[in-house]
Amino acid sequence: MGRYHRPMSPIQLTPGAVPLAAWREVYGGAAVALDAAAYANIDRSARAVSTILARGEPVYGINTGFGKLASVRIEAADLEKLQRNIVLSHAAGVGPPMPVAVTRLMMALKLASLAQGASGVRAETVRLLEALLDKGLTPVVPCQGSVGASGDLAPLAHMSATLIGVGSFFIDGAVVPAERALAEVGLSPLVLGAKEGLALLNGTQFSTAYALAALFETEMLFGSALVTGALATDAARGSDAPFDPRIHALRRHAGQIDAAHALRRLMDGSAIRVSHLVGDERVQDPYCLRCQPQVMGAVLDILRHTATTLATEANGVTDNPLIFADTSEALSGGNFHAEPVAFAADILALALCEIGSLAERRIAMLVDPALSGLPAFLTPKPGLNSGFMIPQVTAAALVAENKQRAHPASVDSIPTSANQEDHVSMAAHGARRLLEMADNCRSIIGIELLAAAQGCDFHHPLRSSPMLERVRELVRRHVPHLDDDRHFQPDLARAADLVGRGALIDAIGDDILPSLDRSPP
């Protein structure tokens, strides 16, 4: 089982100390359980809110209005209504619902944040959120409506509304009204206390969940593209000399060194490579082969940087105001501003673009007999058959689409809330676009997988390395060799599915490839 498969045991969330690998498993479908020790801090924080209220002073979000209306004082009798109103009024999202896996990750991020005891919520509020995750009740959350500052207000409000019995849940794929769904599993809607509505819908958990999901998808695509890149190198009878460790040690970039190491190991023992070590008139391969360590290594470096940023964000508290129980203070700040997530999302967009772009160039090289030495468009009867002509066009279209989507989101800002919130991060859609970019990249790598396997077929009886032959055998179990033209789309779908579920990485063993957590052995 590779690191991309659903784990069997629940993940314990220790607030402020959840490793990146645990968030990866939550995204993969793992159950979660909050560390019971967190409830002491939760209780202290809730008591601090009561102490603050007893002083009778105006405190933002506890006994005042919100945003531009912060100067409006709310009477004690209306505090519960105030918190309910903020949830209902802010549940103003539009668009299709979030994917269930991303919504669950968002809920787990919110759970871990609230449990740090800096948000002033009660234990019963945290327990209800934990129970929803445990019982498989996933709020239906429209995915559009956040600008990534003052928190991801609209989507988190939709999540929060289900806790008070408003809105709907996904349960086993069906949409069920919230109040009915809660009753069916023996839960009751919350009556929100002071500060709780704001605490639930303030924060960066929507943007962070999407960015983390994209990070994990990109990590898998990165590893898969190293595999297809090595296979394409053998298909084109390319050289492994550019992967020599001495070259990369001189430049010193860790990602480049790790990528070259992986490519070298992937090709180790290839009879195809041995067949042209001597007497090959070609001096240098095209950049799409020769510069794989440099390009993919740079991608790995920025993925690791992004992983550090998002792991930090996932373990932080992004509520406002923050409750400090030791002094019973509520301090207003700006931790809800998702600029770190916005930058991380923009970097991930660049990574996805480059992974797909380099793979498409290798596809284009393989179908061009002048560059690859293979039959035109990888078909034994070019002319009568078009072979891989149009799959390369499809890959080019997907690369172009990803380039358009990679425009930085973080450089934009539209003031909101009557200019009280005058600079925003746009992290929400910056992160949300990434999964669609990953889908495009998955299809590009799938096309390369088929093209590279087809190219290696022409070298029969020579075989590639043991690792790459396992990948080729995997492909041939799902997609036969292309002799004459046939309906291509089912082949492309099967190949993209292999890439998307991490089957290529499983075939070679995920300890061969560098990850966000470690270098290869």
Written description of the protein model:
Residues 1-7 have low confidence and may be disordered. Helix 9 (205-235) runs parallel beside helix 18 (427-457). The longest helix is centred in the middle third of the chain and has 31 residues, at 205-235. The protein has a three-stranded antiparallel β-sheet. A two-stranded parallel sheet has the order 1-2. A two-stranded antiparallel ribbon has the order 3-5. With 521 residues, the protein is mainly alpha-helical. The chain has helices at 20-27, 39-55, 79-90, 100-114, 123-135, 153-163, 178-184, 196-201, 205-235, 245-251, 254-267, 271-275, 287-290, 292-314, 339-367, 369-372, 389-405, 427-457, 466-478, 489-500, 503-508; strands at residues 11-13, 32-34, 94-97, 138-139, 142-144, 168-171, 174-177, 322-324, 329-331.
Widest sheet: strand order? 4-6-7
Backbone shape: elongated
The major sheet is characterized as: 3 strands, antiparallel
The span between the termini is: 19 Å
Output mean pLDDT.
94
Report low-confidence residues grouped into runs of 5 or more.
1-7
Q: How many helix segments? A: 21
Helix and strand element order: EHEHHEHHEEHEEHHHHHHHHEEHHHHHHH
SS strand fraction: 5-15%
Structural class category: mainly alpha
Radius of gyration: 26 Å
